[in-house]
Design brief:
Layout: H1 8-11, H2 19-26, E1 32-37, E2 42-45, H3 47-51, H4 79-84, E3 89-90, E4 94-100, E5 106-113, H5 117-139, E6 143-148, E7 153-156, H6 159-164, H7 182-196, E8 201-208, E9 214-226, E10 229-239, H8 241-255, H9 265-282, E11 286-293, H10 296-303, H11 305-322, E12 329-333, E13 336-342, H12 346-361, E14 364-366, E15 369-371, E16 375-382, H13 389-405, E17 411-413, H14 417-438, E18 441-450, E19 456-467, E20 471-473, H15 475-485, H16 488-508, E21 516-519, H17 522-526, H18 530-541, E22 548-553, H19 561-574, E23 577-583, H20 590-595, E24 600-603, H21 605-608, H22 615-631, E25 634-637, H23 643-652, E26 656-657, H24 668-674, H25 679-688
Parallel strand pairs: 16-17, 19-21, 21-22, 22-23, 23-24, 24-25, 25-26
Antiparallel strand pairs: 1-2, 1-5, 3-4, 4-5, 6-7, 6-10, 8-9, 9-10, 11-13, 11-16, 12-13, 14-15, 18-19, 18-26, 19-20
Domain GGDEF: 284-416
Protein name: EAL domain-containing protein
Domain EAL: 425-679
Length: 689
Amino acid sequence: MVVIELKADGLFSQLLLQESFMKAIVDHMEEGVIVYDAAGEPLFYNGAAQKLGLVGQEPEARAYYHPDGQTPLLEEEMPFRRVLLGQTVQQLRVRGQPVYGESGDLQGALLLFKDISRRKWAEQRLEVSEQRYKSLFDHHPDIVCWVDLQGRLIQANDAIHKVAGYSLSQLPRMLLSSLIASEDRVRAMEHFEAAKQGKPQSFEVQALHADGSHLDLYVTYIPMYVSGQIVGIYIVAKDVSQEKETESTAHFLAYHDPLTALPNRRSFHEHLGDLLTEARERGTEVAVMFLDLDRFKLINDTLGHAVGDRVLKLISARLEQGLHRKYPLFRLGGDEFTVVLPNTSCEQAAEVAGLILELLATSFQMDDNELHITGSIGISMFPGDGKDVDTVVRHADMAMYRAKEEGKNTYQFYTSDLNDISRKKMMMEKELFRALEQNELTLYYQPQCQVGELTLTGVEALVRWQHPEQGFISPGDFIPLAEETGLIVPLGEWVLRTACERHMQWRREGFGPVKMAVNLSVRQFKDERLVELVADALRESGMEAAYLELEITESIAMIDFDYVRAKLNQLKELGVSIAIDDFGTGYSSLSYLKKFSIDKLKIDQSFVRDLTTNEVNYSIVKAIIAMGQSLNVSLIAEGVEEEEHAHMLRELGCEHIQGYWFSRPLTAEQVGERFLKPQEVMQELSDAN
């Protein structure tokens, strides 16, 4: 703003105030011009001053305010008053200069007014913008900083301390590259160079925390422009470590078994698919092994699933270590594992399968139990046994089942005849279901006797299947299938009801009562309807409960102590007796058996068969008999096929036997003809005694 210094006498002379000259200058000025006399009255003003509303109004109508736009100026604060008092006015809108006469006396004042509203609004907007930026910069939860074109940090917000541990005093002039993990440094700087070319960049990178650890950041580089030139780079970095960890965990769980941390079924199929693709290109073989732990369900049923899970973890760790992680081990679920051998041969696959069985051979110590676990392995070879993943896997599975059928604890390679066996198995399942509906099943009864007198003491009901086309089908073929498919539950119910009805049929035919033993499978015992089912079978048939003996396996007795004891007590309340079948082959202990309501122990035939020639079996049988006597329960030996066995058992204290030496399983009619006596004869014998 240019202020013209005027002399008072010249100011008011006719020469300076010639209208034609002054009007041309003053009226075209943007600033408002007002000349006041010494009394403060305006002598002259231009059009701009009038447009600004500074003159031409009543004094009361004119209002002047402080720069805040709200606080009115007091009279003594008015610009012309301050000028007339000899003060220099240098405010935002007004500039004034006193005018003196030649003698130095004050003649008036010249004030120039300029409308700076737009500039003030622009300044205010700039100030607000700066405050917003500062707020965004200072309080942003993510790291916000800017660096020069050499990659040196100029400024950063407090988040860099909270997220990465660096104090603000450490950062000035620090190189951006020094904050990046070495493995990502080159890539991060490539993005930096691209940003310097005006291309914003977003990417993930591993950065270095002040403590030396790594953290995952999602970084955005934004070019900083000043007057159209890039002068630096803004950086916004978000800590995504938690998200990455969550993502990594989700990915791990998607491809790994949560119990053993082994790769899972999904991982197995993808890995095998990649190996087969590579093998096709190279013309090599791939072996696929299916490993199923033998009778592992028994451990879950006897010791509980928690113990079973611990055993699975031990098995997984032992196999991984034993295979030296050379061959990947996968857990498909339950007690099923797979091993894949790339670029191998049948001979090498057989060696690895043998190694796996050797690794399992060493017992597993679990609390007070020493567990002996074996496995059955099926092997299929690509491309000979299948051209794709599904076929190779299916054939390995079939070979594994063949290994189980061959006695378990072995391995078998796939052969084409297994397809026929698998189809026959599926057909048998269908036929067994139909047999239950068509009454093709029948019961045979194996007599039990007292050794000394060879008198009948009871019978055991055994199911038999006479197929209309295939003829007799061995229980060894269809009972395991019934267990596997769940058909054992309706099959077991049919056996129970039929056996109770047969007992009453013998009674109606005039024969005396005979003890009827019926087997219960693990699935039947765990059926919630079991007690109700037994009660219904007794009630509907009219059979007295005292003549029904329910045989449970030793493994059932170890499912869950409280559960088993409660169910056994419920069955005992019905009046039936309880026997433990195949005793000596499971994990039961004397302390458990003493707490159960057991009436009879059945010594397993595997110990009886070589009783006279095997000292170990002899000692086992002797110990079982002593245990039974200490528990005050009855004893019966199964599988007695020779007279010498019968005599030795009697000498050891076992009075009851069952086996081919006394009688094979018979039809109901044969039992009636050979062993049962009419009721009146039984009464006469009782009276005679």
